[in-house]
Every structure is written in C-alpha cells, then in structure tokens.
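User: Could you check the structure of this?
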Amino acid sequence: MTENQRLKIFRKFLKATQEDFGTSLGLTQAGYSDIERGKNSVSGKIKILLKREHNINLNWLEVGEGEMFSAIIEDNELEADKLGNDQLFFERLQSEIERLQSEINRLTAENTKYLNLMNAKNQTTESLDAKSIKR
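Assistant: Sure, the predicted structure tokens are below.
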C-alpha cells in the first residue's frame, strides 16, 4: 500500500471530503485528488501539515507501521484553535464508536436469529427422521 492510499484511508476515517481535507492542507480539491490518485506524491510540506493539523503518525503514513495517529501531542499543539479541531476529531471518533457499537448490536441480533433458525431446522429434521424410522 502506498502513502497516497494510506492518506485516502486517513481522510475517509475522518469522514472528510476531498475538498475539506485538501483545504486543511492548503490545497484545492483537484490538487488533493491528484495526491490520492497517485498522480502527485505526498510532499514533505504536506506531511508537515498533516502532522500539525491532523496529528497523523508519519511512520504509519510512510511505511504503514504503528498507529494512524501520533500518540505524542506537543505542548505547542494545545492552542485554543487546535483544541477546537481536537474536539471535532473526538466528536467524530465518538460518532464512529457509536456507529460500530450499533453495527455490533445488529450483527449480534442477526447471529442470534440465525442460530434460532438453525436450531428450529435441526429440530424439524430430527422430528422427520424419527417419524421415518417408525414407519
């Protein structure tokens, strides 16, 4: 997987459009799209902005190792405007957690329904087998 592909994954995780994400990096939608498509590489300047604006783990971006987000937050990143971005990030993260929990609940219910159907099928099969043996 390339840096460009990981950058797309990162953007989609944030649920940002190409236009909004590109704007956060000082790019137009078309300019950012060229990066995602691999037409242009992820420049050093873009990496600096990704680290500063979105707290991306550059090691993850470059080689796919480690976590998507950098674990260390520098003191100078705790400015008031950055806190607003962090708040938005955590709200999106909380929303994603809630969505995943809902999906887990849905799949659990679906799995329970499937197991109940399989048990009913097995009971019916056993009942029919027992009747055919008696004949």
